[in-house]
Amino acid sequence: MPSKGYELNHQYVVSIEKQQSLYKRTLIVVCLSQIFGGAGLAAGITVGALLAQQMLGTDAVTGLPSALFTLGSAGSALVVGRLSQRYGRRTGLATGFLTGGLGAIGVILAAILNNPYLLFISLFIYGAGTASNLQARYAGTDLANKKQRATAISIAMVSTTFGAVAGPNLVGVMGKFALSVGVPSLAGPFILSAAAFILAGLVLFVMLRPDPLMMAKAIETSNQEQHQSLNTDQVENKRGIMVGAAIMVVTQIVMVAVMTMTPVHMRHHGHDLGDIGLVIGFHVGAMYLPSLVTGILIDKIGRKVMAMASGAVMLLAGLLAAVAPGDSLLILVIALSLLGLGWNLGLISGTAQIVDSTNTLTRAKTQGTVDVFVALSGASGGALSGMIVAHSSYPVLAVAGGLLSLLLIPVLFWSRRTKEIKI
Description:
The protein is mostly helical.
């Protein structure tokens, strides 16, 4: 006799209405977790470089924190993707967020002990939260149809805005709180990160039931059994995966490189933590807040057109950041906002292309592997950014990043040479 759980799951397999209901409920749970996850991102972005600079007394290594937590994100993306493929999104994402929370706690201890080695190890572990926050965008697409995918990604990302924008603007408040409890002020934001990542993991672990990826697999298996053949839409498109990955890799390198050194550049020109938090807050807001509009545009206009727009916007951002006077807060806000918008366009269009090009039987594993390359590209951008600025200047870094974004154009023209790519 079938169990009650089996009967419930079978209802989702056979009923399109039930599937859409679960799709909407999954988006709500993902959005809730992303609010916390977004807040957890703030510390590494805003004060990671400053904490390393304070401990080691040199600008040459200020790109290392971003590189380390991004490298940690790369390794975690692989693990989270494989856990999700085998056990479902709930297990994979919750594990990643909880691990990231432990990493943030380690950073706090490193600051108290003034131990750079513990700082670097903890930042690497902290990257697991970053990986989970990014991979959560895929959970909303598992039960979405083709015309909903970019929109589903955008809904998950826009919810990240609430935490991601609040986080940098709480830098000053968390710094004062940290001092009040005997912790160095720059470690204050990591207190917020630890709590936020752990809460995000608990929300997913408790509420993400039935698991959307497991249900999508069951639905696809049922469809194959009924039609006795694999749907052509479910054939993995390797060329399409390469194009989607390339879009995300290029935008990630440019965004991380310029973003990482902006707080250091501002500190050298006399800006305080409040000003830095404001600029990074606008930047992170532009990374996520436009998502509802950009997601709809990507679904309607197409992945390729919006990916090209991403390259153009990032070029403009790099040029503007390069010519901005060091004491001009307004121009830096505009430049970093454009940088965030360009990243948003690239990430959503690339992600949608990845989902279009994979099938449910290997999707999470492939997505995790792609995110490894995205994270590694960000780690490279973060590590090189400090060296470039130390040996030249911030404007040189900004211009180089803008020009690098133009690589999207030949990649997308190359994609037009084959009819199998559906962008």
